[in-house]
Amino acid sequence: MFTSEGNIFPNFKRITIEDKDVIQSYTQKYPPYSDFNILSLLCWNADENNSYSILNDNLVIKITDYLTENHALSVIGENRLDETLESLFSLGLVVKMVPEFVVERLDASKFESTEDRDSFDYIINTLSLSDLNGRNMKNLRKNVRSFQNSYPNSNVKALYLAEKDAQDMIMSLTEKWCDSKGFNQKEKDDDIDAIEKFIKYSAQFKTSTMGLFVDDVLVAFTLNELYEPLWVMGHFGKALNNYEKSSYYLEVVGAGWFNKAGYYYMNLQQDTGLLGLREAKMSYHPEYFLKKYTIKKN
């Protein structure tokens, strides 16, 4: 693996785009847990303090907790995990967002694990979401029809982030969306910073951006990363509140596009415990979750 003195535990290296190959070399053989996704680590990094370390040939990340603003640790890998966790606890930080397969390899007599429902990744079957078949999709079908009936002149287009017009439309909608949510200045700045970073780094990843237009006005967008050969990581999705059901419509259309292109699963990431976000993501009827846990010493 790619290691140097600066990223070997107990040293942590701040994450930059130059660490893409290093981090992906440790994560690529595992399911795409969003917390370890390099593009996500670059985007949600307003204070530039997200960092990583290599410990017993496992990848350790130190990030700012989404809700508490405190630092937290997590780990992905399969090697000498009991010893690895003991070392992490020596730093005095919370250990959370730990993938289920890691927890299954820990000695339960030494560590207590608790499901962290707020951090579960939602895994969506793109065919199921795009077809909308079955009784469980009744409400989602209703939402999609409602949008189509209200806005018969709407259409979905691919957006190209290298184009300034596309960038300007996305950033303008993001600012309006933040204002509609009543964000304080820091919350708004962090959200805008994350979108700007996705645009900045998008050329170094395989990405797909979709825009929903009504009367040539952008009313919703999604920013996605494509994994070979089956996966999509849904990084961002925003919609103007006054265009009701637009977010549902765009996700359903997008799922159809991805499925036809050979991407059969989409990770919509976690809901961070926000009730509205949880209700929206549950409405897509995830096929399963990538579960994560908070770990404590017994």
From TrEMBL:
Transmembrane segments annotated in the record for this chain: none
Residue intervals of the Phosphatidylglycerol lysyltransferase C-terminal domain: 36-295
Taxonomic classification: Bacteria, Katanobacteria
One Pfam match: LPG_synthase_C
The protein's name: Phosphatidylglycerol lysyltransferase C-terminal domain-containing protein
